[in-house]
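ok so dumb question maybe but i'm new to this and my supervisor (M.) told me to 'just get the structure for Homoserine O-acetyltransferase' and walked off. so i did the thing. is this what she meant?? sequence i used:
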Amino acid sequence: MTDDARFGLARHVTLPGPLRLDGGVLLSPVDIAYETYGTLNADASNAVLICHALTGDHHVASPHPVTGKPGWWTRMVGEGKPVDPARHFIVCSNVIGSCMGSSGPATVNPATGQPWGMSFPVLTIRDMVRAQAMLLDHLGIDTLQAVVGGSMGGMQALSWPATFPERVRAAVIIASTARHTAQNIAFHEVGRQAVMADPKWRGGDYYEEGDAPSAGLAVARMAAHITYMSEAGLTEKFGRRLQKREQKSFGFDADFQIESYLRYQGLSFVDRFDANSYLYITRAMDYFDLAEEHGGHLANAFRATKARFCLVSFDTDWLYPTPESRAIVHALNAAGAPVSFVELHSPFGHDAFLLDAPEMNRVVDGFLRAGA
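this is what came out, is it supposed to look like this??
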């Protein structure tokens, strides 16, 4: 294995399409940014697709080109990890609608020569999956050994065997759901309104000025980040501790450590993400309802697939709590699909799937090895 194959190759491809979206629009061409790790074997049977979450990207196990930080899932993907380039050919693509190289509101509309902005067509999770399938066709991969994802990545991992039942042998869904609740949609709407209330949003036409609605996007990120953590985790990490100052100040400065932390999360986010992309992707997550796509019965989504399933939830995740995973398990049981399920303890809430979780790694590693 070459060093490049081990540590990842960042690539970009423009596919002619057309890609028919759920909204009826034909998107053409289709740009996809992606990374690969490892080597595809002779019969192309060792491919594993990693699906990223809302604010993620294709830099799953390599440094981010903007922030310089390590890949977002180096605890899961890498040498000696459950998804290992020594055993797997790993593909992670940036979802369409995002801002890291794949077709989205920040890319150029070939019809006008200008960024799409809010004229980009509305997207669904299934549209993202279909674009990934186009990429796999381009790479010569007919069947996936496994598709793996957490949060919004788990939605894609669920949608894969439902959309392409013959192309997936296993699916790992971590801290995810088959549809958003009213509460999930409500939190997203608060974030979207924060973006659109920023005067610099300009109806989504801010690219030419180079002056993005950073304040609104930062607030959206702050609100969302609260849902990724548990109350116990916030209390343990911050409590009501004040910032260290010579003199306590009253007012609207960041007096509490939790305030400073959230502000940092918001400000650092706007350096690497696009406001319009945030609007599009959160809306795609809200539209996601796998049961509705299959006649109102979630079990129908899995009746045609022969895939094995592994679901993992965390006991302090209140964004996508364990009952959401159990509902998927019950549907898989009703469809006669083989499924493993475990609820793990973690103080970190929804973000636990991105953090150090040895038990999760053992579960995923065992599941993938059993089906190799």
